[in-house]
Amino acid sequence: IDGNGPFVRKKIPSPLAQRNVWAALSACQSNRLPRVEATDELPDRFVIVYDYVPGSTLAQIAEENGRLAPNVAVQLIDQICEAVQELHQHGVIHRDITPANVIVAQDGAHLIDFGIARSYDAEADVDTHRFGTRAYAPPEQFGFGQTDVRSDVHALGLLLYYLLTERNPCLLYT
Q1: How far does the chain reach from its first CA to its final CA, in angstroms?
Q2: Catalytic residue of the set 51, 96, 127, 152
């Protein structure tokens, strides 16, 4: 490990590990994404070591402060869009962009938690697993099609809605 730390070590059961996602994340250059320091194969687990990003989640910030001022919300969304754009350029769909998966550090917003991220598969009709935070996930993520870059854009719009209103996006559909 070359970095100075601190680091996060994540162990994923081998059958569930999306190795191509972690390889793509290793190639990403955005400061808005954690840098992958190392990966390793254990007999039954895939291990990833990546940078720990200190700060508070957007969920914590909204809970403590209420809705954000529009200029602050737009600035944070712009920073998250930097991270998402870099992921998409490397063929990765995050699929879980939520207030809990964005850390606000001293230098701004960082996208974290790639547990359900996947590479786009042009040949697939639907995603193989139904995952995500229902309030931010598009319908295709729950068995109605395949997720693609539009799925993350959908989540970004709902995240901005949440930051400006502090209302759960699920309320939009009731």
Answers
A1: 48
A2: 96
